[in-house]
């Protein structure tokens, strides 16, 4: 029997005010699906890009959100490997801003008892991103120097801890002293207040005068070209977002001599379309969480206040993870 479930949807792309709370009928899980009663959904800049029209949507109206964690409530025909009451999570699947949803079983992963559901809801996509960047885009080695922009943000804190755990040295950029303290507490060796100091000079110094081995930019805009100057010759820069402005086309000559570096614009959503890579990234993230990777929650709001969460994220007022929680749930 169908159940009316709270969703947060958009009927057109635009500002945060386009996010609307609606109650929609949820059918029993179909073959191969699992009904998940959600504890929390993670909020990512990816959601903002889908909402504001920077990234296209397959159809409208649409329920936003691409990661969540919760409890198995029911199994569709043919599903094995899961049981009602089990703790589970998923990422890379649109529709997470909902109190409950049916999820394809192959996208679900069981969450170990020693890993908090909140940490998975706010950290799974970012963990898969870190795994992609450090194991596939460029193999990170002990002793490497890494520049992480927005090091106190949700992704920045995960990248900083992950890189440090692999033996790399991290320099991060932040926008305030409070955020600097947070980044330092999560593994950054040095931080730069980018509004006050020149991060290019600081990164070059951190890399022994030549620049860092690897730079990760999720800010975009004019920040990206400046980031190229922070990387040593034959090092690598990647862009994984544009929180600070549109990423303009990069001319090959901008990464040629005298910079002489490699540049990539990898897509974690594309990475997760390959089932083996999806599982690899998810399991790597769960292993890191079990080993002590921290996902501090900087903003925890009811699902109905999704517009407030988006506005805070876009204004740079958040640090750590941002969660949306259905009314029936408490922190977990």
List keywords for this structure.
single chain, 332 residues, alpha/beta, Quinone Oxidoreductase, Chain A, domain 1, Rossmann fold, 2 domains, seven-stranded mixed beta sheet, 9 helices, globular
CATH class of the largest domain: Alpha Beta
Distance between the termini: 29 Å
Query: What is the total domain count?
Result: 2
Proportion of beta-strand residues: 25-35%
Q: Portion of residues in helices?
A: 25-40%
Main beta-sheet annotation: 7 strands, mixed
| Helix count from the secondary structure assignment | 9
Shape: globular
- Uncertain residue ranges: none
What is the radius of gyration computed over CA atoms, rounded to a whole number of angstroms? 20 Å
CATH architect. name of the largest domain:
3-Layer(aba) Sandwich
Give the tally of β-strands: 16
Give the class from helix and strand content and strand pairing: alpha/beta
Q: Mind telling me the CATH superfamily name of the largest domain?
A: NAD(P)-binding Rossmann-like Domain
CATH topology of the largest domain: Rossmann fold
Q: Give the SSE order as H and E letters.
A: EEEHEEEEEHEHEHEHEHEEHHEHE
Mean pLDDT: 95
Structure description:
The protein is α/β, with parallel strands linked by helices and about 325 residues long. Helix content is about 30%, strand content about 30%. The strands form three sheets. Strands 3, 5, 6, 7, 8, 15 and 16 form a seven-stranded mixed β-sheet that branches. A six-stranded parallel β-sheet has the order 11-10-9-12-13-14, sandwiched between helices.
